[in-house]
Amino acid sequence: MSMSQNVMESRTWTSQVNVAEVEQLPKHLQALLKSAHHAADNAYAPYSQFQVGSAVRLANGEVVQGSNQENMAYPSGMCGERVAVFAAGSQHPGVTMEAVAIVSPSHNAIAEAFMPCGGCRQVLLEAERRQGTPIQILLQVRDEVVTMSASAANLMPFAFDAHGLGGGETPAKQK
Fold this sequence. Notes:
Helices cover 23% and strands 18% of the residues. It is α+β, with helices and mostly antiparallel strands. It starts with 17 loop residues before the first strand and ends in a 26-residue tail after the last strand.
């Protein structure tokens, strides 16, 4: 038996993102990015010097901001994405999140590699699955091009979900 006969089936997963100049975006998404940049001004990042701002656009038109808040005990800090998503869920329960803009003005940020961490991807994905509709994700470093994903699911192809807990479905949208 040859080596190739012992190889298991190979599969490939891909994620699609789009890249655009800010001026190419609809006005409401330009405004969302601007709101995220304003949120980054409030980041507390004395250890990493990596400020992140986030803004969540809700179906009712409201925008909720968040920024990363570091702590000397690193795990005790919070990423900007989670601050914004958790605040939106807490302050506007049951209101659909339509889009999340995540930005960094940091000079040490690399545009091609700027993505939410795994924990933030998990939070974004669960929020999306809980509400039953996609959340558009916009990513930008400084004033460079914007990377966009039509869904948080595109950022996490091997997501941990309720099936991993043996529970079946993601908890339903709460009222």
